[in-house]
Structures are given as structure tokens and as C-alpha cells.
Design a protein that fits this description.
- The protein has about 500 residues and is mainly α.
- The chain has 2 domains: about 200 residues, Fumarase/aspartase (N-terminal domain) (Fumarase C, Chain B, domain 1), CATH 1.10.275; about 290 residues, Fumarase/aspartase (Central domain) (Fumarase C, Chain A, domain 2), CATH 1.20.200.
- The chain is built from 19 helices and 9 strands.
- The radius of gyration is 26 Å and the shape is elongated.
């Protein structure tokens, strides 16, 4: 079993993916433990010395920020907070995203600016390591006062409330804790707020999506390269000189990748009857390149966020300072996720156009990529499916981050709607895997009509691997299973 120590050091998105994909166990290092304990001790001492109102510690929440809470009620205050804010609804958050939320919440609390007990963080780690995954709902967060409702559901099992998935089944949290001989956590001052304030719902979706976006982009260069070969396209648009004078890094990178992918191909190197290709082939460097630049930008923003402290108030023991500010506001993520959704939707849009060209009955390919078109519809309807998904992506690209709604009696008067941006982006990502699978299915089918000519070694390897999963379509058959196999294939592509 792999182990990973969290010790207040920068954690890359790649490391997060490795932790999750390898099912690693996580542990707190000594530096992180000390930071958590020191912060908690400082807060306890400060509350013992002073009666000054400090938001969320000895006051109510939101517009109730000026309501003082008696010391004997501080524990009840935090429990009430978690219970009252667990108002999520709609579809459940996928369990792999919930596990990301647990990991990111541990990372945020480990910096020692949140005032939580060490036992609270260790219980979150226990849940992560033993795959005790709280039931969280997709709807309920405004993406500003932290992801309040989703994180409340994430936190309920700590106090023996709510539901969890454990060993493949949904259980009452209290039942699982009892079976494991674990006592519910008694939350101390500030803890409920520390658990609920933060961007971990948004960040979990964002980190998954940006990693998936990079995978989609890498895959799509190969898939589009095969489509170009199947369509008997030209190499000229990928030359270094014409791309370098545009000065756009993503474009230059894509053109270089395509030259590598197509190196040694018989098809790309032969004489062409046509002078130029349609935009969906000729402008691949420009479109794929622009999306890559966006992915790179989003990657940086999200990586910063998962290494941040995003709750409120934040505590600085070394400065003897407790600051009520706005690090929970999801605007950096909200805008970025809207931007990334557009970039991915465009990759899907140009992909569908290539599919359309491949089935058009031009460039020596049979109509709808099948023998006896007319008797056979061939690949006519997969393009419909692809077009439907592309259209849905366009609808999902309406930016969430331009909206805001007053909440908490006007105290929280500008919100990011980053949670909605996150769930929309997730749908776009999943849609893109389906679009990509359909393009690959079409491209492989189309290239068979170029035989016995061979493409490059890289693309021949792709063809061979795909043919082990999906066979050539000789005549009309039930296509849904082939599409699903193709989608599974692109998800596993390297």
C-alpha cells in the first residue's frame, strides 16, 4: 500500500491524481501536526483570556454575525451549524469526487490557520484511508461563503449524522461509526465553520476536470491525426514556419505534436489531388492550441487553490491575529471553470465537424463509411449523437460566474456561483469523452478504406489497440455497444 505524507508542502495536481489513482493512504507529517495543534492551542488560550467577539467563534453566522454566543454554548453552536447547513439536494456527488473533497479538506486544514482539533483532521484522514465516503449532494452551494451545503454533508459523519458509502453500500453514519468502534467528534469552537467554509467542493470538481481536460487534449491530437489520415488530409498546415509566425504557444506545440504523430506515414506523404482541407482539419493547430493554452492557465489556478487556505476566519498564532476576510469566495475558480468549459466544448465542436466530413462520401470514402450505403445506414446516426452532445456542451457553456444572488439578509451580497460552474464543467468533460470516442470510432472505420496503405507507427499502434476492442463494421449492426466500447477506450488511452 502506497503512503503519502501531508506536511504543509506544495502538492501538485499530478500528485493528487497519483494519490487517488494508486489508492494511497495519507498521513499527517510532524510539521502539519504541530501547525494544527499550535493553532488550536492559541485559539483556546485566546478565548480564555478575552471576551471580544470574533466572527464564527463566539458569534452567530452570516447576518447573525453580531449575535454573541455564551462560552457554554460554543460546542452546540458548531454542531448546530453543521446540521442546519446540510441542505444539499439533487443528484449525489460521484464518490470519486467526494474522495477528492476529503483529501482537499485535509490539505486545507493541515496548514494550521483554521483552529481545528488534530482529532478532527485525523478522523477525515481515517475516512479517506478506509473509503468511508459521505453522501454529498450536487446542489446547494453559491460558491462564496465556502461550499456550505456540500461541505456540511461531508462533515455530518464526523458528528455521527448523515449517510456514508462504506464497503459498496449506503449506511447511516452512526451505524458505521458504531461498527468501527469510533465515537463521534465533539466539535470545539470554530471547528464547524472551518469544516464548512472553503472551496473544496469546487476544487474537487475543478482538479478532476482540469486533469481530465489535459488527458482529453492529448488524446484528441492522436484521434484528430487519425481522422486527418482517413480523410487524406495535407501536412502543410502543421509546418513549423507557418505556425511559428502566429506566436501562439499552444498552436506551435500542437503543430509540432502532429508532425511527430504523422512521421513516417505513407498516406500523409503522398501526392494530394486537393489544394486545401476544410477548417476542421486545416485549423487544428489554432483550435487545439487555443484550448491547450486555456488548460495550462486553468491548471495553474486550480493547483494554487488546492494548496490554499480557504476558510474563514483564518488564524495567525504567530501574529496573535484572527482575521475575518473572504478567502472562501470562489471567484478565481468560477471564472476559470467557465473558461475551461468553453475550451473543452470547442475541442468537441471541431471534433464533430471532422466526424461529419468523414461520413460525407468524399475523398474516396464511401458514404457513411459502410459498403452498400442505402441498404446500410452505416455511421449516419453516430454523427447525430455526436452533434446532440456538442449542442448540449454549448448550452452548458453559459457562464455561471456572471451571476450572483443576495443571501443571508444581504450580508453575503456577491457570490461566485462557482459550484454551478463546477458541476457544469464536469458534465462538459464527460460529454467530451463521448464525443472523442465517436470520432475515434469513425476515424478507425474510415482508415480501413485506405488500406493497404499504412499510417505512422504511432497511429498504427492506436489502430491495432482499438481493433482489439472494436471490430470493423461490415454492415448495419447494433452500434450502441461499439460507441460505449470506444468511449471506454479513450478514457484509458495513454
Amino acid at each position: 500500500m502506497k503512503q503519502y505524507t501531508i506536511n504543509n508542502e506544495w502538492v501538485s495536481l499530478k500528485e493528487i491524481d497519483v494519490i487517488l489513482e494508486s489508492h494511497a493512504q495519507i498521513f499527517l507529517g510532524e510539521t502539519a501536526k504541530k501547525a494544527i495543534v499550535d493553532c488550536r492551542n492559541y485559539l483556546d488560550e485566546k478565548l480564555a483570556r478575552h471576551d471580544k467577539l470574533v466572527y464564527g467563534i463566539n458569534t452567530g453566522f452570516g447576518s447573525l454575525c453580531n449575535t454573541a454566543i455564551e462560552k457554554e454554548d460554543l460546542e452546540q453552536l458548531q454542531r448546530n451549524l453543521v446540521l442546519s447547513h446540510a441542505c444539499g439536494t439533487g443528484d449525489e456527488v460521484p464518490q470519486d469526487i467526494v474522495k477528492r473533497m476529503l483529501l482537499l479538506k485535509v490539505l486545507g486544514l493541515s496548514h494550521g490557520h483554521s483552529g481545528v482539533q488534530l482529532v478532527t483532521v485525523e478522523r477525515l484522514i481515517y475516512f479517506f484511508n478506509h473509503n468511508i465516503l459521505p453522501v454529498v449532494y450536487q446542489q446547494g452551494s453559491l460558491g462564496a461563503s465556502g461550499d456550505l451545503a456540500p461541505l456540511a454533508h461531508l462533515s455530518l459523519p464526523l458528528i455521527g449524522e448523515g449517510e456514508v458509502y462504506f464497503q459498496g453500500k449506503k449506511h447511516a453514519s452512526a451505524e458505521v461509526l458504531k461498527g468501527l468502534h469510533l465515537e463521534p467528534i465533539t466539535l470545539q469552537s470554530k471547528e464547524g465553520l472551518a469544516l464548512l467554509n472553503g472551496t473544496q467542493f469546487m476544487s474537487a470538481y475543478a482538479s478532476y476536470s482540469v486533469s481530465s481536460a489535459l488527458k482529453l487534449w492529448k488524446n484528441w491530437n492522436k484521434v484528430a491525426g487519425l481522422s486527418l489520415e482517413a480523410y487524406d488530409g495535407r501536412l502543410n498546415p502543421f509546418q513549423s514556419n507557418v505556425n511559428e509566425i502566429r506566436n501562439q504557444q499552444g498552436q506551435i506545440e500542437v503543430a509540432s505534436i502532429f508532425r511527430d504523430i504523422l512521421e513516417g506515414s505513407e498516406v500523409i506523404g503522398r501526392e494530394k489531388a486537393h489544394v486545401q482541407d476544410p477548417y476542421s482539419f486545416r485549423c487544428i493547430p489554432q483550435v487545439h492550441g487555443a484550448s491547450k493554452d486555456t488548460i495550462d492557465y486553468a491548471y495553474q489556478i486550480v493547483e494554487r487553490e488546492v494548496n490554499a487556505v480557504t476558510d474563514n476566519p483564518t488564524i495567525f498564532p504567530e501574529d496573535d491575529d484572527v482575521v475575518s476576510a473572504g478567502n472562501f469566495h470562489g471567484q478565481p475558480l468560477a471564472i476559470t471553470m467557465d473558461f475551461l468549459a468553453i475550451a473543452l466544448a470547442e475541442l468537441g465542436s471541431i471534433s464533430e465537424r471532422r466526424v461529419y466530413k468523414l461520413i460525407s462520401g468524399t475523398r474516396g470514402l464511401p458514404a457513411f463509411l459502410v459498403a452498400n450505403p442505402g441498404l446500410n445506414s452505416g455511421f449516419m446516426i453516430p454523427q447525430y449523437t455526436c452533434a446532440s452532445i456538442v449542442s448540449q456542451n454549448k448550452q452548458l457553456c453559459m457562464p455561471a460566474s456572471v451571476d450572483t444572488i443576495d443571501s443571508s439578509n444581504g450580508q453575503e451580497d456577491h457570490v461566485s456561483m462557482g459550484a454551478n460552474a463546477a458541476t457544469k464543467l464536469f458534465r462538459v468533460v464527460e460529454n467530451c469523452f463521448r464525443i472523442q470516442g465517436i470520432e475515434l470510432l469513425n476515424a478507425v472505420q474510415a482508415f480501413e478504406f485506405r488500406r493497404p496503405a499504412r499510417t505512422s507507427e504511432i497511429l498504427e499502434d492506436l489502430l491495432e489497440s482499438f481493433r482489439q476492442e472494436v471490430s470493423f463494421v461490415e454492415e448495419d449492426q447494433y452500434l450502441h455497444p461499439l460507441i460505449e466500447k470506444s468511449v471506454c477506450f479513450v478514457r484509458k488511452m495513454n
